[in-house]
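Pair request: fold both.
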Amino acid sequence: MRAYQAIGALAGCALLVASGCGSEGLSIGLAGLLALLLWSCGSSKPSASSEDATTSAGQDAAQPAPGLDASAGADASTPETDASTPVADAASSAADASTPVADAASPAADASTPGLDAGTSPDTVLENHPLALTGERSATFAFSSPTPGASFECKLDQASFAACTSPTTYPNLAEGAHAFAVRAVDEQQQVDPSPATFAWSIDLTPPTAGQVVDGLGSDLTFQRDPANLAAHWLGFTDAAAYRYNASLGADCLGEVVAAIDVGPATSYTATASLVSGTSYRSCVQGVDDAGNQSAWVASNGVTVDAVPPASTITSPVSGAFLQAAPALEGVASDDLSGVSKVEVSVGREADQTFWTGSTWAAGETWVATTGQEAWSLPSVVFDQDGLYTVHSQATDGAGNLQSPRAQASFTLDRQAPTFAGIAAATLSGPDSATLTWSAASDQLCAAQSIVYDVCQANVAGECLASPFAVLSTTAPGALEVEIAGLAEGTTAYFVVRARDLAGNRDDNQVEATVEVPVPAHLAYELQYGVPGSYVLAQSSTNPDEFLRTTDLVDLRIPAWMLWETLHPSEPIPADARLQQLVAVVDYVNQGVQGPLAPASRAISRWEDTSFAMVAVISSVWIPTAEWALDLSLTITDLADPAVSVTIDASQIADTAVFGGDPMVRTILLDTQGSTKRERVIERGPILQGAQVRLAYSDWRLDLLVDKANLNTQIGTAMFHGRFGQYVAPIFGKLRYEVYAGISLDGGGTFNPEQELVAVSNGRILQSERTSYEGTVDLPAIANQLLFYGHVKAILVADYTPYSNVNQRWYSDGQESVIREAWDNPSGANTNYVFPVVPK
């Protein structure tokens, strides 16, 4: 069967022999011819004897076989010789790597050919060979035969078959295509007519390196992902597969991700723990089918930036109230990749809309700013007052978005508060005034957040001029203010205007005035009387006996008295000045604590007088709300804090009494010695529509009824004293009934008499004295006030202290009018006429 196959093959290749084998092929034997034909036509197993295979082709066995490196100097028939010489014709001398080795069914030599036995020829099995395409210059083949005792002959490229053993290695092969054949030879020297063959190529040229790009798209400089590193590559020539690693430098050491085969893919994403702020390089190596590797190529590097940028809104200030639309401005920063953009959203609270860049609409909208590190959004139209909220967010070069967003809220308020102005302006001290008002209202600000600007001038209308001159500003929500330091004897003009948090100020035209009086400085001395008793006496240098509201009082205390009070058992030193003396002045209104807390006053100065050295405590101010003042003194020597003496109201014999209501005037009829005098106690004229208090002092009444003469007459009458035609009891108490007649605007016609009420310590300085007082309400049209007095002296019988008196004309408590007198009965005395002026 194998012979027939060989003959068929011979017939099929006859043309090839005739055209391409040359004339030398015709001189060999039939078996050699058949073997040559089979070899030349690409058969995997040419059938020829060992002798024919090595000599009949006319080749010199001593020459190097084709495809081997002649420089090796080895015998071409020895498979171990150097085969570095390139194959002469790789296309014609080697089979494709995919071509299987021919089996026994392939065409073979004619069975009649000598040396061939169609029934017993050996077979050859190729067990191991190199890859069809390899980058190795050394090739090793392993083979075997099922025929016992068989030997082998090998052939490489154009060389002749030569004896060989398994395995056979060919070192230093030249780059290019190669062909190998091996045939078994049995013990009868029969040759396998179909040698086992293998064709392969050696590729020693590595691929050409290309370019590695960070990221899967355009080249990245920064990335925000700290867990993945991606790259793609291009431009590698003759690369069938690739290897990848991630490194810190261009040397591609693979410190971050070790080298990994990624196959033919041209991109890869590696998983790694990346550190923000660190630069990483993706490295790629091309590998061809032969296993040749290109040089590692590194990307230019990508820096991980996992930290978001920050933006800050610098205008407006959050929480601000503004009277004009603000500029929206801010700054942004990023330490690594830089700020790529800033966006701003502006929300309007009133209708829950947002600025879109051209209008206001529902739904939050982010509008790109002008600039990045210093940014602004100039196009916003604030067409409504109210609360606005601004957010800003920055994006950096790595794509990180700021979180949390920056925020600032502000209130746009372009409307001034509604304010009625000053409601009242009153004198509150010798040089101070209190201004009061009702709270202003505002469309956006709470009343308690509104402040009030105060203007003060000495000329009417000056505070109404523009610009508004602000003297002081109140605390938020205040409804009054006290202005001190007013000049004595002047008129102060005030205007108060409300200002909201946005700075809008109302423009009310209410101007209030305060008349500032010239204060009286009255000096009083605490004088020594008897041990434990102290008298508050008026100064002999003061022409006025009466204290008034807003007066300033100087307390004058003799040094020797202070020393004996504080140190009663110690002798008075030559210099008894107590430089650290402090007196606490307590204001008491007829025994009731006044509205002012006790005030601590240190000694202002020491003065030498004809009587003694005097300590002066200056500027004890009399409150406007008080009618009577008891000075309670606590005297302490600070050099010895344990030494402290209180002189309270019960130890002070006299009480200072004075007018309280600044709108009320007191007309007092008094007597100084034998001279009558009339005076208005409080400062200022009598005002239309105000009140006038009429007062008679007991001294004045004593003079009217001639009390001194009356007492003499009663006293000389002894047990049956007489007064005129009346017999008066010797024992009793004198009292008065006082009536006043009032006439407005003159004419001598008096209104019905009005009884005045006795008031102890009410309006007169000395505590032992009594005044008789009544109040008159003046009409708004009154121009003058005229009055007269009517006095009754009444003796009240009282024998209680004199139980031995037997003859009693009256029982105890029985009253007798013993004298009656009139003061200015005709109204002709001009001293009793007082002008009345408008308020």
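--- second member of the pair ---
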Amino acid sequence: MKTEFSASLAKLLIVFLAIFSLASLQAPISNNVLFPTLHLFTAIACPSPGAQQCGACQVAIGTICVEYWVPAGPSEDTLTATIFTDEQAEFTNIQSASPAIDFTDWPLTPDLVGPFTTSSSFRITSTISEAGYFEIQFLLANNFWGCDFNFGNAACGVHIRQGIAHMIDTAKFAANEPSISGQAVALDTPVPSDNVGGLPTANPCAWDALFPETGTNCIVGAPGGTAYRLGNATGANGISWLQAPGSQDLNAAAAHFVAAGIATGCDGGTGTASCTASTDSRLSGISSTAASHVPSFAIESDNVPRLHLGDSIAQQICYMFTGSYIIPCTYLSARSVCPGCIPESFPGFTTSTTAVNLSWGIYTAAYNSPTGPLPFDSSLYFRYNSRFVSGIPSIQPPNGPCASTAVPTVSAPDYIYLCNTNYDSLTSQMEYAPYLFLSGCDPVVGSTLNNNTRVACPTSQPSAVGGGVMAEDQFGKNAFTLPIFQQTAQFGYLNNGYFRQITNVGTGLPNYFTWLNSWNPSPVQPGTIRQGFKQSTSSASPFVDTSLWGQWIVGNVYDSLMVTNPYSGGQLIDWMILSVQQNFPPASLTYPPPPGTTQTFRFTLRSDLFFQDGRKVTSFDVAFSYLALKSTGAFAGGGAAPVTGITILSPSQFDINLSTVGPFTLLPLTSLPILPGAYWTNSGMSAWNSGINTCTATGATCYPSQYTLTGLGTPMVACALNCASFPASLMNVKLSQTAAGYDPIVNHTFVGSGPWQCGTVTSSGSGTCTSTGSQNPPVGGNYVLTRFGKGLAPASGVSSIYFRSNGNLAAYIWSQDTGDITHDFLNFSVVASCFGAAVTSTGPCAHFQQGIGANGGPIPVGLSQVAIVNRFVGTNWVAPFNWATSPPVGVIPLQPVLYENTLILNPSGVAGCTNPYPTGGYDC
């Protein structure tokens, strides 16, 4: 018969064996810091007592003043997101006598910055440069006035788009449009100036072969507004940024339309020369086919600058055809669109899996990042390379120019159907370049050559920057879209007691860490962060969502393997993983990799990861997520593009096998949402659970197992190596759940491992978390998300509380583990040696007998304390950084004050250790 003491010793032995298994992990741990340009920061003394609680300037990043961020949370119990018709309605609400929100999600307009700055009712963030841009888009698969754009390849299409580019002075628009005046700068390429990687703007002056430009701005790194501008706009129809009739630019626009075959000339003349000499820039001899192929201009009406931009360009187009600025006109259909609007929302975001939806022609588009500054490949490659269209046979070789690697999808990132072989080649070279920079070869700011790499180093493969500038050049000379401006921003919020609201350097106030960190001792609505959304989501499904607002909701419910530092887009933090070991060549692997593999990244999951329904997160869930999102072409799955397969080595360790690797690969690769396969597998939950139970049992023969995608159209999963216990069929996603209209809230599949959950989550699924009980609540409705672990004492459970909760961070700090395996093994040896020892106030055992790990104490060390120390063996909370000696930019110093709803978790430096936790310090 076993005694309680002998059973405890047996458990300790098992723990020791687990530690030895961790120590056996192979290969060095990557530092994960991929980019050389990081924001410089300095600590700033808080102007009021209690530096961590003042909600003032604690960190300076360039000119931005922010608070420390905490890699844990949430601090409040509930997050609501109330839906408005537009930002103006949201701003009106927050300024009302009884506002329904605490935080806004959209930059303040110039007229509100002053009042929000001077009023004691509000606070305002520092100015940031938004990681996004605004542009005019074209459906490149459509026919415009008799010209088939042929996916961006038709010469007549280039002329039309270049002509439209000449109609507007983008520099004047950015400077003079009242809703953004003083907050915007013009852009000539679809790459924000603060992009991670430092890509300069290509020299735009030779983009227009008919009307080349000269001047001091004709350089690499040219200021925005240089492209397609022969002279400053003098205004037309009362709009300062429109090129006037008879101006060089509007005449050039007319000449391009003539060159496209839409008209025979201007003012009754013939040829392009009749337009360059015109006094009114009016087309004549308009083709009979022009009126039968009238493009539809979808103009967003819920955002003032986009409305004014779209209206003015539409007026200019109609003027050139008709002599009148009235819209719509015979040659242009102009219609207002907005999210959830009547009569319609913009139809382009939802793509077809069987055909190309030709229901729109031109669109006033905007892109914003939900996570902060992004590398320049995020637009040039992941948005416009044709492997990201909805790949259907009729547009792929041998029938069309779109990439054969594209799969049918309802949420294609390349919904404009740009399929240009040369552009695809350049962006692929950029994406998978062997280096970021190539000294002496890359285009230099101030020079004139966009293809300097080809001239200076003709035998070298371009660097990412060299390839990027050439891709910008190809993009600009074909005018695939017309980039207009990027915006600087300040966000307003109520001055009602909140602090630790995080101003992301690329997205501002609304971001993952604001909702993770913000805390208020007396919120208006108890325990609740009240966020405003200027519009509703387009979907809550990770397979369908494309909007910024949907990404915010999805990103709060599902976690990813790594996250980006909110204060530095160049820093990645290991989030769900202990480590990533990178660049294993095929010859170094102990198994045959999938065909086409050149490199492999090895990931090890944290041992305390659980979904909100209590299921443990496994390597199989990660593999399923990557294969499902890639096979369906989901917007959220773009980072899996180079994946050749996933090889599972254990329940918590797996390899992602890759065809190619570039300077930016790790960031998009590790950004995919991790889904619980049980809810999405085509085989059903019971079959999934059976496979997981078999493969997580002691002595399981499931490893290694290798899963790949195979077949045309929507590919299916194939398995190699050890497949009997977890067959490929389990890894196939249920396609009906990836359809455009699928609602994970109605179907109770909205379950992740993230910090916020949808209602009450049980073993059978999620609850309800909107005012309507379904996704995309209407204006006046809301999302209501709940803290994963709400109602439970800090760090009182493993499977029932978010693994990065503030309570768990307090327990981690108390454990004294650091992630260094030698240190952590010795640390575990200490707590194990203290097992059952009498309470003492001195020596190494004293620490482990009190604090949060002892639930106050002092009590003898038992299995609970040992289990906590064991839980964090090998865990570096901010890996690959060292929190004490080389921390991530702007992270809060150790040991921080932490919050869980009304509970304040003080460190010993604040509360001392005289009294037991929770009155005393959690780290005593």
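Observation on the second member. The first strand starts at residue 41 and ends at 43.
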